[in-house]
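Go through this chain.

——
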Amino acid sequence: MVTARTIVFRPVAALTLIFWSAVLLVRPWGDFPFDDDWAYGETVRYWMSEGVLRVSSWTPLTLLAHAAWGRLFCALFGFSYGSLRFSTLALAWLGLLVFHRSLLRLGASAPAAFAGALVLLFNPLYFRLSLSYMTDVAALAWMLMAAHAFLIAELDEKPAWAWIGSALSGVAYLVRQTGACIALGAAVWLLWRGRRSPRGLLRTLAGLLVALLIHAWWLRSHGVNVVFREYALRDTWANLSGGWDALGRGVERVEGAAVHLALFLSPLFLAGTIGLGALSRRRLALLAAAAATLGGAWWFHLAPVTGNILNPFGLGVCSMPGCAFKAAGPFGVPAFWAVAGALAVAGGAVALCGFGSPSAPVGLFASGFLAAFLLSLAGGVYFDRYFLVLLPAVIAAWAATCRVHWLRLAPGLAFLAAWAVLGSWDSLNWNRARWEGGKKLVERGIAPSSICGGFEWHGVHNYEPMARAPAPGSGAPGAPYLGNKPFVDGRYSAFLAFAGASMASGIDKVGEVPYFSPLSFRTERIELWVDESGRHWPWRL
């Protein structure tokens, strides 16, 4: 007998099994950071060792709840980047289950809700960032929980859940600023629907207001760090005040997000049932315009990603010497990107034809995520991971009106799963080998600050000491804004590089660290190079 409990439990168990099986396949253990992990991890490490919560100098984010969540896991398992990584994985898993439940509440069929959750799970951005202590997926998980609470408050007419949604949005804000947009989006949605009750608006915003007060107290007590002032405030203002240039950047960013959304959600779009016979001339014209726009954007490389996570050599950031020689597998083959471009065009075109007017609950759910994306457009810099917040909104709008054909879904989903899992597995393996190589060089008596080991290595060993150094002309601590100075202006006597990278004369290879790459299905190598004469070389030889 099929019961409501069975309908809910079976997909939850299946999603849990698939998620953690994929995680275990990529072997996420190891005490090494990824991307900005070193800065966020420094906050937790210092808090645990000194008993003082101090945000890293590289960190312009709110981060307080993120640090507390990470410390909880480190208190249980000891401080390491592996412990911090599993703190994000736990949130990614919870966010996935809550998102699946939200899709059901929005009227999606059981197959459509399950398919939508799988497409989010195997999104390369979502899966790779789940295997880090970055704030993108952590904040998104709290945002998904907040949006679900607001859905319950609306659909079940349970106002108490609005307080919970507001509180969860506040937690999301104390992970990443865009988390505030869930409560703000819900409030705007209420006003749009003519719901102007002061009590209702208070329930929607109260928890967020508390979080804002906590953050304001923190800034007043500890001061605004220089990165927050220079990067988050000054650069954002410089971008917004750029006139037509700012508008052009905004259009490029939106277009790039559209291209990548069309690609990453194409399995779901192409697997849905669409009444092509009911297409009007207007929709056919829009279909042709969408195909031309998406195809042109992809062909002329207008997508404004900076190679932060999505790269032609795999997934993740590569700042070591010789990244051009890294094993890339299918990512280095033009045919792979041709297939990706074709999926983007097809997916975007079909989505445009299939979308109808979203229901009121879908509007409530999606409003905060759309607001978060719009907020990200204001920044001076823009990374591919910033449009991650759009995925739940678009999936929800589609799944609520779509019937899924699994045979059509399977090829596209397998394509995404292979991209996400194999790319993440490779990324973890070479990062692990990189840090093992750095330790070998340190064992030879080389100072960590003299080893060119990539962005994360320099962040751990070079950035904080420079940032905490006395300011020029005074004995007071607090160096001026360093930007990328510690990463690009240093001089080094030893290097970690991918096999095949060329080195200057006088720099000798002293060893290597092998690692298995699932992209090439063979053993690759990180090579160790040292100038035994003691000379120091720039980062880019």
User: Anything to note?
Assistant: The chain is about 60% helix and 5% strand. The first strand starts at residue 310 and ends at 311.
